[in-house]
From TrEMBL:
Entry protein name: RNA polymerase, sigma subunit, ECF family
GO MF entries: sigma factor activity
One annotated GO biological process: DNA-templated transcription initiation
Gene3D superfamilies: 1.10.1740.10, Winged helix-like DNA-binding domain superfamily/Winged helix DNA-binding domain (1.10.10.10)
Family: Belongs to the sigma-70 factor family. ECF subfamily.
Entries under InterPro entries matching the protein: HTH_Sigma70_ECF-like, RNA_pol_sigma-70-like, RNA_pol_sigma-70_dom, RNA_pol_sigma70_ECF-like, RNA_pol_sigma_r2, RNA_pol_sigma_r3/r4-like, WH-like_DNA-bd_sf
Pfam families from the UniProt entry: Sigma70_ECF (PF07638)
Annotated RNA polymerase sigma-70 ECF-like HTH domain residues: 1-186
Keywords associated with the record: Sigma factor, Transcription, Transcription regulation
């Protein structure tokens, strides 16, 4: 773990060789994040975890103005970039189809992000992105907490460390964010279920 922070610091200081040494150290964790993100995608999604990792890594290497604080910060930004890549991919596919089908992701695997619901229920990836955009406008820190907890899979304690706040604050704001997202995503989930309430 310390190696990642040291490599990030060396890279930030201008050591280009640190970037080449960083990839093998972070690849497995980036792949885990990508697999976690892809698990929520509809079956037959055209973007594969390896491609998602590669695209995210390329974007990470272009983050010249980012002040890398530590390993947690690096992976939090990686998870945020993966979410953006997935949303961009869906938007591109919809433009190609000229308003074709919505691509949906399942909410399985987020047991405490939404209220209990039947297994296999789903929500449109663009609806989730839109809901997170609204949350970010209202409560930016709550949006960061969702990204860290849901997309990065961080614990409450790791999220608190990454954001420089207490674990109690993370728990409180996580609960508020879940309530907000549940309310925002409810219409999209009902539509995905054929208009029936889940």
């Amino acid at each position: 773990m310390g190696d990642i922070t040291q490599l990030l610091n060396a890279w930030q200081a201008g050591d280009e060789s640190a970037l080449a040494r960083l990839m093998p150290v972070v690849y497995a964790e980036l792949r885990r994040l990508a697999v976690r993100a892809m698990r929520r995608e509809a079956v037959g999604h055209t973007l594969q975890p390896t491609a998602l990792v590669n695209e995210a890594y390329l974007r990470l290497t272009q983050q010249e103005r980012t002040n890398w604080r530590n390993r947690t910060h690096f992976f939090a930004i990686a998870a945020q970039l993966m979410r953006r890549i997935l949303v961009d991919h869906v938007r591109r596919r919809q433009r190609q189809r000229r308003g074709g089908e919505h691509v949906i992701i399942t909410l399985d695997g987020m047991p405490d992000l939404v209220a209990p619901e039947p297994s296999g229920s789903a929500v449109d990836v663009l609806a989730l992105d839109e809901a997170l955009g609204k949350l970010e406008a209202l409560a930016p820190r709550q949006c960061r907490i969702v990204e860290l907890r849901f997309f990065s899979g961080l614990t409450v304690e790791a999220t608190a460390e990454a954001l420089g706040i207490s674990a109690i604050t993370v728990k409180r704001e996580w609960a508020m964010a879940k309530t907000f997202l549940y309310r925002e995503l409810r219409p999209a989930r009902e539509a995905a279920c054929g208009g029936e309430r889940p």
